[in-house]
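A protein record pairs a chain with a discrete description of its three-dimensional fold. The following entry can be read in just this way:
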Amino acid sequence: ATLFLRGRNNMYLKTYDYFVKKYPESDYLEILKNMTAHIRLVNWKETGKTNEYDIASDTYISLIKQYPESPLYERNNLILGYMQLEHGEALNTLQNFQNFVAKFPKSPEVPQARKALAEALLIMHKYDDSLKELSGISNDFAKTKDGAEAKYRFGDVEFARGNWSGAVQAYNKALKELPQYSKDFPNAHFNLAEAMFWSRSYKDSLNEFVNFLTLFPTHSYGGYAMTRIGEIPAVLGAGPRRVSGDC
């Protein structure tokens, strides 16, 4: 426990292996296995290596199977599901969160789990199913931020399938109906501008990219927005001096 709290992860793992071999029936094993799972998760996050992911995933799967009555059972299911989603395992994510929602229908984590379901369906290119799930979330949690986010993500689905006009309509509708959340979802503004660009609504796209940078000046996609802002005047026929700012 001391090694864990001090972040001495490698030494912890060696000590853990020793402890398990020496005390295979210890009452402390569940606690230690959860600590070990956390360290394996941290190792994967820090290295991004597939083998680290496999070890972390296997550790959480083992915990879920071995301790179904544990107070950490719900938490460990969630961690595993989000790991799978981040790793791009859409089918496993789908199955995991479907089981989670069925087992814990009253959990406060259900909205997040259902959004993960919608994301997994999107990765699998099941666009209509993803929209159906998001629509259910927006209705079931209409007065919460989760419901608002679901409505904003309607545009993400249309954007993902290349339906630029549908994406523009969906994002604009969300921004109009739920303006109080307009600063909470920067991807909606960026994707709206990009969808406008591919719809050849260049002036609207330019204005929205400028709006994106105004609202989110430090966002990691700021460079992409600046590139588009430089491209669009040229597309509209502006001269090279005007595009470069030498005017």
The two ends are 66 Å apart (CA to CA).
